[in-house]
Design a protein that fits this description.
- α3 packs across α4.
- The longest helix is centred in the middle third of the chain and has 41 residues.
- A 6-stranded antiparallel beta sheet has the order 4-3-6-7-8-9, with helices on one face. A 5-stranded parallel beta sheet has the order 10-14-15-5-16, with helices on both faces. A 3-stranded antiparallel beta sheet has the order 11-12-13.
- It has 2 domains: 171 residues, Rossmann fold (3-Layer(aba) Sandwich); 158 residues, Glutathione S-transferase Yfyf (Class Pi), Chain A, domain 2.
- The chain starts with a strand and ends with a strand.
- With 371 residues, it is an alpha/beta fold.
- 42% of the residues lie in helices and 24% in strands.
C-alpha cells in the first residue's frame, strides 16, 4: 500500500485512480490520486461534489445526495460509468454502470451484481457537508440514520439486523392498516408472529445503539470542546420511550408492556407507535437540547464533531478510511477552520476536500486537482 509521512503520521492511499463518464455535470474525467490530503478546486457547478459523490458510491453503494443512483446520470446521457482502483492488501477494481432504463450493474474485481450494495462494508467513507447542520437541528430521522450508518460500520451483523427490522416493521404496519380497514391478511396469528419478530429485532437494535452511544458520546463531546476552544461543552444521550437508561434490567418486559398499552392506539391509527424507528440521539448544552438553543456556530461544531466521531469509529473497525469534505471550510470562522484542519492532519485517512476558494483552506495539501 502506498503511503507517505504526513505531519508525523502515516496516511494511506486507499483509492489510486478513478474514471468517470456522465456523472451529473462530469462528462468525462480520468484522474490519479496521491496519498494524504487532496484539494479539489474549481468554480461552483464544475463537478467537485460529483467527484466526491462518485468516490462515496464506490465505497458504500449509495449516494450521500440522493436515494436513486439513476439520478446521478447526466441529463443528456442514458448511462453513467464509474471505475476506480483501490489499494489494500492487493489492488482491487470497482466499477459501476447505471443505465436509466436497464438499471444497475456493479462489479468488484470478478464479482458482478445488479445491486451497488456489493461495494458496502470494506472501505468506509465519511462525508462532511454544510448541510450536516441538519444532524443537529433536523428531525430525529437524521440522527437515527447517522447512528445506523455507524452501526453498519461496526458490524455487518448490524446491517442485517437493521434490514430485517425495516422489513418486519413494514409488514407489521401493513397488517395494522389492513386491520383498520377490516380485512387483515393472516389474522391475529400473523400479527402475533410479526410482533414477536419485531420485539426480538428491536431489542438487538437498542442494545447496539446504546453500546454505540456509550462508545462515541465522550468522543463527540471532546471534539466539540476542541472546536469551541473550551468556551462551552455538550453531552449526549439516547432517547427512547423504552430504553430510559442503559442499565435497564428487563428491556424485553418493558417493551412488551409498552406495546400492550399501545395496542388499541396502534390498531386505531394503523401504524406502529413505538420502537427504535421512533428514537433519537440527543445533544445537550447547559441542560437544554442543542437543536433548540444552539447558535449556528455551535450546531455546526456539533455536527462536525459527530462526523469526526464516525471517522474514528470507522478507522477503529475498518482502518483506514476515506474522509470527504464538501465545501466545509467556507462555513466556518477562522478559529474553527484551523481547528478542523488540525484534526484532519491527525487522522489516519485519505482526505479529499472540495472547495471553490483555495484561500479557505488553512494549509497546503499534498495534491491539488483543478476541475
Amino acid at each position: 500500500m502506498e503511503s507517505v509521512e504526513f505531519w508525523g503520521t502515516r496516511v494511506d492511499s486507499l483509492i489510486k485512480s478513478i474514471h468517470i463518464t456522465s456523472v451529473r455535470n462530469i462528462k468525462a474525467l480520468d484522474v490519479s490520486f496521491q496519498p494524504g490530503i487532496t484539494v479539489v478546486s474549481g468554480k461552483n457547478g464544475c463537478g467537485k461534489t460529483s467527484l466526491l459523490e462518485a468516490i462515496y458510491v464506490l465505497c458504500h453503494g449509495y449516494s450521500f445526495r440522493t436515494r436513486e443512483l439513476k439520478e446521478l446520470v447526466s441529463w443528456d446521457s442514458k448511462e453513467l460509468l464509474v471505475r476506480a482502483s483501490f489499494l489494500g492488501e492487493r489492488e482491487s477494481i470497482r466499477a459501476l454502470r447505471v443505465d436509466s432504463a436497464s438499471g444497475v450493474l456493479a462489479k468488484k474485481d470478478s464479482v458482478e451484481s445488479k445491486s451497488a450494495s456489493l461495494f458496502f462494508g470494506e472501505i468506509p467513507a465519511i462525508v462532511m457537508q454544510p448541510c450536516d447542520i441538519s444532524l443537529v437541528r433536523g428531525g430525529p430521522e437524521e440522527r437515527r440514520r447517522w447512528m445506523d450508518e455507524m452501526l453498519c460500520i461496526r458490524s455487518s451483523l448490524n446491517t442485517d439486523i437493521l434490514r430485517r427490522y425495516k422489513r418486519i416493521l413494514l409488514q407489521r404496519n401493513q397488517w395494522l392498516k389492513q386491520n383498520r380497514a377490516g380485512s387483515p391478511v393472516g389474522g391475529e396469528t400473523l400479527f402475533s408472529v410479526l410482533t414477536e419478530q419485531f420485539i426480538e429485532l428491536a431489542i438487538k437494535i437498542w442494545q447496539a445503539r446504546l453500546d454505540l452511544v456509550a462508545e462515541i458520546g465522550g468522543i463527540t463531546s471532546d471534539y466539540y470542546k476542541h472546536l469551541a476552544a473550551g468556551a462551552d461543552t455538550i453531552s449526549v444521550s439516547y432517547r427512547s420511550a423504552v430504553t430510559k437508561e442503559k442499565e435497564s434490567l428487563n428491556l424485553e418486559n418493558d417493551f412488551r408492556n409498552a406495546l400492550e398499552s399501545l395496542d388499541d392506539a396502534e390498531r386505531l391509527q394503523g401504524v406502529t407507535l413505538i420502537g427504535p424507528h421512533k428514537d433519537d440521539f440527543i445533544l445537550w448544552s447547559s441542560g437544554y437540547e442543542l437543536r433548540s438553543v444552539g447558535s449556528q456556530g455551535q450546531c455546526r461544531s456539533a455536527a462536525i464533531s459527530m462526523r469526526f466521531a464516525a471517522l474514528d469509529l470507522a478507522c477503529k473497525n475498518k482502518c483506514p478510511s476515506i474522509l470527504l469534505l464538501d465545501d466545509v471550510f467556507a462555513e466556518l470562522d477562522e478559529y474553527r477552520r484551523r481547528a478542523v484542519a488540525d484534526l484532519i492532519r491527525e487522522k489516519h485517512a485519505q482526505v479529499f476536500i472540495a472547495t471553490p476558494r483555495l484561500q479557505d483552506i488553512p494549509f497546503s495539501p499534498d495534491a491539488q486537482i483543478e476541475m
